[in-house]
Amino acid sequence: MKITINQAGSHVGETVTLGAWILNKRSSGKIAFLQLRDGTGFLQAVVVKEDIGEDLFKTAKGITQESSLYVTGVIKEDARSDFGYEMEVTNLEIIHEAVDYPITPKAHGPEFLLDNRHLWLRSKRQHAVMKIRNEVIRATYEFFNNEGFTKIDPPILTGSAPEGTSELFHTKYFEEDAFLSQSGQLYMEAAAMAHGKVFSFGPTFRAEKSKTRRHLIEFWMIEPEMAFCEHEDSLEVQENYVSYVVQSVLKNCVLDLKILGRDTEKLAKVAAPFPRISYTEAIDRLKEWGFDDIEWGDDFGAPHETAIANHFDLPVFIINYPTKIKPFYMQPNPDEEGTVKCADLIAPEGYGEIIGGSERINDLKLLEERINEHGLDPESYSYYTDLRKYGSVPHSGFGLGLERTVAWLSGVEHVRETSPFPRLLNRLYP
Protein backbone atom coordinates (compact mmCIF):
# COMPACT_ATOMS: atom_id res chain seq x y z
CA MET A 1 0.00 0.00 0.00
CA LYS A 2 1.36 3.42 -0.97
CA ILE A 3 0.74 6.23 1.57
CA THR A 4 2.07 9.68 2.40
CA ILE A 5 3.92 10.59 5.59
CA ASN A 6 1.01 12.51 7.08
CA GLN A 7 -1.07 9.31 6.86
CA ALA A 8 1.42 7.27 8.91
CA GLY A 9 -0.60 7.45 12.12
CA SER A 10 -3.46 5.55 10.48
CA HIS A 11 -1.19 2.65 9.45
CA VAL A 12 0.68 1.67 12.64
CA GLY A 13 1.82 -1.95 12.41
CA GLU A 14 1.23 -2.11 8.67
CA THR A 15 3.73 -2.53 5.85
CA VAL A 16 3.46 0.47 3.53
CA THR A 17 5.44 2.22 0.78
CA LEU A 18 6.40 5.90 0.72
CA GLY A 19 7.67 7.99 -2.18
CA ALA A 20 10.17 10.38 -0.59
CA TRP A 21 13.39 12.35 -0.75
CA ILE A 22 16.38 12.04 1.56
CA LEU A 23 16.61 15.13 3.76
CA ASN A 24 19.57 13.80 5.72
CA LYS A 25 21.04 10.53 6.96
CA ARG A 26 23.38 9.07 9.53
CA SER A 27 24.63 5.58 10.28
CA SER A 28 26.01 3.76 13.27
CA GLY A 29 27.55 0.35 12.74
CA LYS A 30 24.85 -1.91 11.37
CA ILE A 31 22.00 0.64 11.55
CA ALA A 32 21.28 3.57 9.23
CA PHE A 33 18.81 6.38 9.92
CA LEU A 34 17.24 8.05 6.90
CA GLN A 35 15.40 11.38 7.37
CA LEU A 36 12.65 11.33 4.78
CA ARG A 37 10.40 14.08 3.44
CA ASP A 38 7.57 13.81 0.94
CA GLY A 39 5.93 17.25 1.03
CA THR A 40 3.32 16.24 3.61
CA GLY A 41 5.77 15.80 6.48
CA PHE A 42 9.03 14.37 7.79
CA LEU A 43 9.69 10.82 8.99
CA GLN A 44 12.69 8.85 10.22
CA ALA A 45 13.26 5.50 8.52
CA VAL A 46 15.41 2.98 10.38
CA VAL A 47 17.43 0.54 8.26
CA VAL A 48 18.86 -2.51 10.06
CA LYS A 49 21.51 -4.47 8.14
CA GLU A 50 20.45 -7.93 9.28
CA ASP A 51 16.82 -7.23 8.30
CA ILE A 52 17.44 -6.12 4.70
CA GLY A 53 20.76 -7.70 3.76
CA GLU A 54 24.21 -6.50 2.82
CA ASP A 55 23.42 -5.00 -0.61
CA LEU A 56 20.40 -2.93 0.39
CA PHE A 57 22.13 -1.77 3.55
CA LYS A 58 25.08 -0.59 1.48
CA THR A 59 22.65 1.29 -0.77
CA ALA A 60 20.99 2.92 2.26
CA LYS A 61 24.33 4.05 3.70
CA GLY A 62 25.48 5.46 0.36
CA ILE A 63 22.34 7.30 -0.68
CA THR A 64 22.89 11.03 -1.14
CA GLN A 65 21.01 14.09 0.11
CA GLU A 66 17.86 14.88 -1.92
CA SER A 67 17.94 11.60 -3.83
CA SER A 68 14.43 10.30 -4.48
CA LEU A 69 13.31 6.79 -3.62
CA TYR A 70 10.50 4.43 -2.72
CA VAL A 71 10.82 3.13 0.82
CA THR A 72 8.85 0.14 2.09
CA GLY A 73 8.56 -0.77 5.74
CA VAL A 74 6.45 -1.10 8.88
CA ILE A 75 5.09 2.01 10.62
CA LYS A 76 5.88 2.08 14.35
CA GLU A 77 4.97 4.50 17.11
CA ASP A 78 7.95 6.52 18.39
CA ALA A 79 7.45 8.67 21.49
CA ARG A 80 10.89 10.29 21.01
CA SER A 81 9.82 11.85 17.72
CA ASP A 82 7.84 15.08 17.53
CA PHE A 83 5.88 13.43 14.73
CA GLY A 84 5.23 10.34 16.86
CA TYR A 85 6.05 7.66 14.29
CA GLU A 86 8.94 6.07 12.39
CA MET A 87 9.40 3.36 9.79
CA GLU A 88 11.32 0.10 10.07
CA VAL A 89 12.57 -0.41 6.52
CA THR A 90 12.17 -3.73 4.70
CA ASN A 91 13.02 -2.55 1.20
CA LEU A 92 14.06 0.55 -0.73
CA GLU A 93 14.33 1.50 -4.39
CA ILE A 94 16.26 4.54 -5.62
CA ILE A 95 14.38 6.56 -8.25
CA HIS A 96 17.02 9.21 -8.90
CA GLU A 97 20.37 9.82 -7.25
CA ALA A 98 21.11 13.50 -6.58
CA VAL A 99 24.77 14.51 -6.92
CA ASP A 100 26.42 17.48 -5.18
CA TYR A 101 23.22 19.02 -3.81
CA PRO A 102 24.25 22.65 -3.14
CA ILE A 103 22.43 23.32 0.17
CA THR A 104 24.26 21.08 2.60
CA PRO A 105 23.54 20.74 6.35
CA LYS A 106 25.72 23.74 7.26
CA ALA A 107 25.31 27.50 7.53
CA HIS A 108 24.74 29.39 4.27
CA GLY A 109 24.43 33.12 3.66
CA PRO A 110 21.05 34.66 2.73
CA GLU A 111 22.11 35.64 -0.81
CA PHE A 112 23.25 32.08 -1.55
CA LEU A 113 19.99 30.71 -0.19
CA LEU A 114 17.93 33.19 -2.20
CA ASP A 115 19.87 32.31 -5.35
CA ASN A 116 18.85 28.73 -4.64
CA ARG A 117 15.33 29.54 -3.43
CA HIS A 118 13.89 26.84 -5.69
CA LEU A 119 15.86 24.31 -3.59
CA TRP A 120 15.80 26.16 -0.25
CA LEU A 121 12.02 25.63 -0.18
CA ARG A 122 12.73 21.94 0.54
CA SER A 123 14.32 22.64 3.92
CA LYS A 124 12.42 21.81 7.08
CA ARG A 125 12.28 25.43 8.20
CA GLN A 126 11.04 26.81 4.89
CA HIS A 127 8.54 23.98 4.59
CA ALA A 128 7.13 24.98 7.99
CA VAL A 129 6.82 28.65 6.99
CA MET A 130 4.97 27.76 3.79
CA LYS A 131 2.61 25.46 5.72
CA ILE A 132 1.78 28.35 8.06
CA ARG A 133 1.26 30.63 5.07
CA ASN A 134 -1.12 28.04 3.62
CA GLU A 135 -3.04 27.86 6.89
CA VAL A 136 -3.43 31.65 7.01
CA ILE A 137 -4.87 31.51 3.48
CA ARG A 138 -7.18 28.61 4.33
CA ALA A 139 -8.43 30.28 7.51
CA THR A 140 -8.95 33.56 5.64
CA TYR A 141 -11.30 31.97 3.13
CA GLU A 142 -13.08 30.12 5.92
CA PHE A 143 -13.58 33.26 8.03
CA PHE A 144 -14.94 35.46 5.26
CA ASN A 145 -17.13 32.71 3.83
CA ASN A 146 -18.58 32.11 7.29
CA GLU A 147 -19.22 35.85 7.66
CA GLY A 148 -21.16 36.09 4.40
CA PHE A 149 -18.51 37.80 2.22
CA THR A 150 -18.29 37.22 -1.53
CA LYS A 151 -14.83 36.90 -3.10
CA ILE A 152 -14.30 39.27 -6.02
CA ASP A 153 -11.09 39.44 -8.07
CA PRO A 154 -9.88 42.94 -8.98
CA PRO A 155 -7.62 43.56 -12.00
CA ILE A 156 -3.85 43.53 -11.68
CA LEU A 157 -3.38 45.99 -14.55
CA THR A 158 -4.95 49.36 -13.72
CA GLY A 159 -5.08 52.90 -15.06
CA SER A 160 -5.16 54.64 -11.66
CA ALA A 161 -3.50 54.53 -8.26
CA PRO A 162 -5.22 54.20 -4.86
CA GLU A 163 -2.11 55.03 -2.81
CA GLY A 164 -0.50 57.77 -4.91
CA THR A 165 1.69 57.62 -7.99
CA SER A 166 5.20 57.58 -6.49
CA GLU A 167 5.35 53.80 -5.99
CA LEU A 168 3.76 52.55 -9.20
CA PHE A 169 5.23 50.11 -11.71
CA HIS A 170 4.52 51.61 -15.12
CA THR A 171 3.87 49.54 -18.22
CA LYS A 172 2.32 50.00 -21.64
CA TYR A 173 -1.16 48.62 -22.25
CA PHE A 174 -1.09 48.62 -26.04
CA GLU A 175 -1.35 52.37 -26.76
CA GLU A 176 -2.26 53.40 -23.20
CA ASP A 177 -0.32 53.83 -19.98
CA ALA A 178 -1.03 51.25 -17.29
CA PHE A 179 0.28 50.29 -13.86
CA LEU A 180 0.63 47.15 -11.77
CA SER A 181 -1.92 47.24 -8.99
CA GLN A 182 -0.93 48.65 -5.61
CA SER A 183 -4.25 47.55 -4.15
CA GLY A 184 -7.58 46.15 -5.22
CA GLN A 185 -9.42 48.48 -2.86
CA LEU A 186 -11.08 50.89 -5.31
CA TYR A 187 -12.50 47.99 -7.29
CA MET A 188 -13.60 46.28 -4.08
CA GLU A 189 -15.59 49.39 -3.21
CA ALA A 190 -17.45 49.02 -6.50
CA ALA A 191 -18.01 45.31 -5.76
CA ALA A 192 -19.32 46.12 -2.26
CA MET A 193 -22.02 48.32 -3.82
CA ALA A 194 -23.18 45.21 -5.69
CA HIS A 195 -22.66 42.47 -3.08
CA GLY A 196 -22.61 44.26 0.29
CA LYS A 197 -19.63 42.45 1.81
CA VAL A 198 -16.74 41.38 -0.41
CA PHE A 199 -13.07 40.47 -0.19
CA SER A 200 -10.20 40.02 -2.59
CA PHE A 201 -6.98 38.11 -2.23
CA GLY A 202 -4.24 38.67 -4.75
CA PRO A 203 -0.82 40.07 -5.61
CA THR A 204 0.03 43.76 -5.28
CA PHE A 205 3.15 45.69 -6.24
CA ARG A 206 5.07 48.65 -4.83
CA ALA A 207 7.98 50.24 -6.70
CA GLU A 208 9.50 51.23 -3.38
CA LYS A 209 13.27 51.14 -3.10
CA SER A 210 13.31 49.68 0.38
CA LYS A 211 15.56 46.97 1.77
CA THR A 212 14.02 46.59 5.23
CA ARG A 213 13.03 43.23 6.68
CA ARG A 214 9.36 44.24 6.39
CA HIS A 215 9.21 45.09 2.67
CA LEU A 216 8.73 43.16 -0.55
CA ILE A 217 8.24 44.49 -4.07
CA GLU A 218 5.48 41.96 -4.76
CA PHE A 219 3.24 40.84 -1.92
CA TRP A 220 -0.24 39.44 -1.38
CA MET A 221 -3.12 41.33 0.20
CA ILE A 222 -6.45 40.30 1.68
CA GLU A 223 -8.78 43.26 1.11
CA PRO A 224 -12.35 43.18 2.47
CA GLU A 225 -14.80 46.00 1.76
CA MET A 226 -18.19 46.44 3.43
CA ALA A 227 -21.22 48.57 2.51
CA PHE A 228 -23.33 50.15 5.27
CA CYS A 229 -20.30 49.78 7.53
CA GLU A 230 -18.75 52.54 9.62
CA HIS A 231 -15.24 52.62 11.01
CA GLU A 232 -16.04 51.05 14.38
CA ASP A 233 -17.82 48.15 12.67
CA SER A 234 -14.76 47.58 10.48
CA LEU A 235 -12.41 47.51 13.47
CA GLU A 236 -14.51 44.75 15.00
CA VAL A 237 -14.29 42.67 11.81
CA GLN A 238 -10.51 43.20 11.71
CA GLU A 239 -9.85 42.04 15.26
CA ASN A 240 -12.18 39.06 14.90
CA TYR A 241 -10.49 38.07 11.64
CA VAL A 242 -6.94 38.30 13.00
CA SER A 243 -7.94 36.40 16.15
CA TYR A 244 -9.51 33.66 14.02
CA VAL A 245 -6.41 33.28 11.86
CA VAL A 246 -4.04 33.17 14.83
CA GLN A 247 -6.06 30.53 16.64
CA SER A 248 -6.33 28.46 13.43
CA VAL A 249 -2.54 28.49 13.04
CA LEU A 250 -2.05 27.49 16.67
CA LYS A 251 -4.50 24.61 16.24
CA ASN A 252 -3.45 23.30 12.84
CA CYS A 253 0.29 24.08 12.63
CA VAL A 254 1.58 22.66 15.92
CA LEU A 255 4.52 20.77 14.38
CA ASP A 256 5.42 23.63 12.04
CA LEU A 257 5.55 26.14 14.89
CA LYS A 258 7.70 23.69 16.87
CA ILE A 259 10.12 23.22 13.95
CA LEU A 260 10.52 27.02 13.82
CA GLY A 261 11.05 27.22 17.58
CA ARG A 262 8.18 29.70 17.80
CA ASP A 263 7.20 30.83 21.30
CA THR A 264 3.45 30.32 21.09
CA GLU A 265 2.51 31.72 24.49
CA LYS A 266 2.16 35.26 23.14
CA LEU A 267 0.16 34.05 20.15
CA ALA A 268 -2.18 32.15 22.45
CA LYS A 269 -3.20 35.45 24.07
CA VAL A 270 -4.38 36.95 20.78
CA ALA A 271 -8.14 37.34 21.04
CA ALA A 272 -10.50 40.23 20.33
CA PRO A 273 -10.96 42.95 21.43
CA PHE A 274 -7.59 44.62 20.76
CA PRO A 275 -6.35 47.75 22.52
CA ARG A 276 -6.60 51.11 20.72
CA ILE A 277 -4.51 54.24 20.93
CA SER A 278 -5.02 57.43 18.96
CA TYR A 279 -2.29 58.80 16.73
CA THR A 280 -2.09 61.91 18.94
CA GLU A 281 -1.75 59.83 22.10
CA ALA A 282 0.90 57.68 20.42
CA ILE A 283 2.94 60.79 19.57
CA ASP A 284 2.72 61.97 23.21
CA ARG A 285 3.80 58.59 24.54
CA LEU A 286 6.71 58.31 22.11
CA LYS A 287 8.00 61.66 23.28
CA GLU A 288 7.72 60.47 26.90
CA TRP A 289 9.73 57.38 25.91
CA GLY A 290 12.56 59.48 24.50
CA PHE A 291 11.67 59.69 20.79
CA ASP A 292 12.48 63.35 20.26
CA ASP A 293 12.72 62.92 16.47
CA ILE A 294 8.97 62.72 15.85
CA GLU A 295 6.34 65.47 15.68
CA TRP A 296 2.59 65.50 15.16
CA GLY A 297 2.04 65.06 11.43
CA ASP A 298 4.98 62.69 10.90
CA ASP A 299 4.43 59.10 9.87
CA PHE A 300 5.68 56.35 12.14
CA GLY A 301 8.84 54.40 11.36
CA ALA A 302 9.69 50.86 12.45
CA PRO A 303 11.24 51.93 15.81
CA HIS A 304 8.15 53.95 16.69
CA GLU A 305 5.75 51.12 15.83
CA THR A 306 7.86 48.64 17.79
CA ALA A 307 7.92 50.87 20.87
CA ILE A 308 4.14 51.24 20.78
CA ALA A 309 3.59 47.51 20.21
CA ASN A 310 5.92 46.59 23.08
CA HIS A 311 3.61 48.47 25.44
CA PHE A 312 0.81 45.95 24.79
CA ASP A 313 0.49 42.14 24.88
CA LEU A 314 -1.85 42.12 21.88
CA PRO A 315 -1.91 43.65 18.42
CA VAL A 316 -2.80 47.32 18.86
CA PHE A 317 -4.84 49.70 16.70
CA ILE A 318 -3.41 53.17 16.13
CA ILE A 319 -6.44 55.23 15.07
CA ASN A 320 -7.19 58.69 13.67
CA TYR A 321 -4.07 59.60 11.69
CA PRO A 322 -3.54 63.12 10.27
CA THR A 323 -5.34 63.69 6.99
CA LYS A 324 -2.21 64.89 5.23
CA ILE A 325 -0.29 61.61 5.61
CA LYS A 326 -3.11 59.32 4.49
CA PRO A 327 -4.62 58.59 1.03
CA PHE A 328 -7.28 60.79 -0.54
CA TYR A 329 -10.26 58.47 -0.02
CA MET A 330 -10.42 58.43 3.80
CA GLN A 331 -13.41 59.85 5.66
CA PRO A 332 -12.69 62.93 7.84
CA ASN A 333 -12.99 62.42 11.58
CA PRO A 334 -15.59 64.85 12.98
CA ASP A 335 -14.33 64.38 16.55
CA GLU A 336 -10.77 65.52 15.82
CA GLU A 337 -10.11 68.13 13.17
CA GLY A 338 -7.32 67.36 10.73
CA THR A 339 -7.59 63.58 11.15
CA VAL A 340 -9.35 60.78 9.32
CA LYS A 341 -11.32 57.74 10.46
CA CYS A 342 -8.63 55.15 9.92
CA ALA A 343 -6.48 52.65 11.77
CA ASP A 344 -3.27 50.69 11.39
CA LEU A 345 -3.03 47.39 13.25
CA ILE A 346 0.48 46.91 14.68
CA ALA A 347 1.59 43.35 15.38
CA PRO A 348 3.53 42.58 18.58
CA GLU A 349 7.21 41.67 18.79
CA GLY A 350 8.44 44.25 16.29
CA TYR A 351 6.63 42.99 13.18
CA GLY A 352 5.01 46.34 12.42
CA GLU A 353 1.82 47.20 10.58
CA ILE A 354 -0.11 44.20 9.28
CA ILE A 355 -3.43 45.95 8.52
CA GLY A 356 -4.33 49.38 7.22
CA GLY A 357 -7.98 50.34 7.02
CA SER A 358 -10.44 53.21 7.06
CA GLU A 359 -13.95 54.40 6.51
CA ARG A 360 -14.16 55.69 2.95
CA ILE A 361 -15.46 59.10 1.88
CA ASN A 362 -19.06 58.69 0.71
CA ASP A 363 -19.78 62.32 -0.21
CA LEU A 364 -19.23 63.06 -3.90
CA LYS A 365 -18.23 66.71 -3.52
CA LEU A 366 -15.67 65.99 -0.81
CA LEU A 367 -14.18 63.07 -2.78
CA GLU A 368 -13.79 65.26 -5.87
CA GLU A 369 -12.04 67.90 -3.75
CA ARG A 370 -9.63 65.30 -2.38
CA ILE A 371 -8.83 63.97 -5.85
CA ASN A 372 -7.95 67.48 -6.99
CA GLU A 373 -5.92 68.23 -3.84
CA HIS A 374 -3.80 65.13 -4.47
CA GLY A 375 -3.15 66.14 -8.08
CA LEU A 376 -4.90 63.08 -9.50
CA ASP A 377 -6.61 62.93 -12.88
CA PRO A 378 -10.39 63.08 -12.27
CA GLU A 379 -11.09 61.25 -15.52
CA SER A 380 -9.08 58.21 -14.34
CA TYR A 381 -11.27 58.03 -11.24
CA SER A 382 -14.63 58.63 -12.91
CA TYR A 383 -15.72 55.04 -12.17
CA TYR A 384 -14.83 55.63 -8.53
CA THR A 385 -16.78 58.88 -8.21
CA ASP A 386 -19.74 57.16 -9.92
CA LEU A 387 -20.09 55.07 -6.75
CA ARG A 388 -20.93 58.32 -4.89
CA LYS A 389 -23.36 59.48 -7.59
CA TYR A 390 -25.55 56.39 -7.65
CA GLY A 391 -26.68 55.27 -4.21
CA SER A 392 -23.72 56.24 -2.04
CA VAL A 393 -23.62 54.69 1.44
CA PRO A 394 -21.21 54.68 4.40
CA HIS A 395 -18.65 51.97 3.73
CA SER A 396 -15.34 50.79 5.14
CA GLY A 397 -12.58 48.34 4.39
CA PHE A 398 -9.04 47.27 5.11
CA GLY A 399 -6.08 45.40 3.72
CA LEU A 400 -3.97 42.76 5.47
CA GLY A 401 -0.48 42.01 4.18
CA LEU A 402 -0.07 38.25 4.01
CA GLU A 403 3.73 38.05 4.18
CA ARG A 404 4.09 40.31 7.23
CA THR A 405 1.36 38.40 9.01
CA VAL A 406 3.04 35.07 8.25
CA ALA A 407 6.39 36.48 9.45
CA TRP A 408 4.80 37.45 12.76
CA LEU A 409 3.03 34.11 13.26
CA SER A 410 6.12 32.12 12.21
CA GLY A 411 8.55 34.22 14.22
CA VAL A 412 10.91 34.62 11.24
CA GLU A 413 12.90 37.83 11.04
CA HIS A 414 12.53 38.76 7.37
CA VAL A 415 9.48 38.69 5.06
CA ARG A 416 11.63 37.20 2.28
CA GLU A 417 11.18 33.83 4.02
CA THR A 418 7.39 34.10 3.92
CA SER A 419 7.08 34.40 0.13
CA PRO A 420 7.80 31.25 -1.89
CA PHE A 421 9.73 33.26 -4.50
CA PRO A 422 10.33 36.72 -3.03
CA ARG A 423 10.72 39.77 -5.24
CA LEU A 424 13.15 42.17 -3.59
CA LEU A 425 14.98 45.28 -4.70
CA ASN A 426 17.54 43.94 -7.26
CA ARG A 427 16.17 40.38 -7.15
CA LEU A 428 14.08 38.78 -9.89
CA TYR A 429 15.70 35.32 -9.78
CA PRO A 430 14.66 32.58 -9.43
UniProtKB/TrEMBL annotation:
InterPro entries: Aa-tRNA-synt_II, aa-tRNA-synth_II, aa-tRNA-synth_II/BPL/LPL, Asn-tRNA-ligase, Asp/Asn-tRNA-synth_IIb, NA-bd_OB-fold, NA-bd_OB_tRNA
Main enzyme class: ligase
Annotated EC: 6.1.1.22
A biological process from GO: asparaginyl-tRNA aminoacylation
Main location: cytoplasm
Coiled coil residues, start to end: none
UniProt-annotated location(s): Cytoplasm
Keyword rRNA-binding appears in the UniProt entry: no
Transmembrane segments: none
Domain Aminoacyl-transfer RNA synthetases class-II family profile: 130-430
MF terms (GO), sorted A to Z: asparagine-tRNA ligase activity; ATP binding; catalytic activity, acting on a protein; nucleic acid binding; transferase activity
Superkingdom of source: Bacteria
Pfam families xrefs: tRNA-synt_2, tRNA_anti-codon
Reaction catalysed by this enzyme: tRNA(Asn) + L-asparagine + ATP = L-asparaginyl-tRNA(Asn) + AMP + diphosphate + H(+)
KW ATP-binding (keyword) present: yes
Self-association state and partner proteins as the record states: Homodimer.
Stated name of the protein: Asparagine--tRNA ligase
Gene: asnS
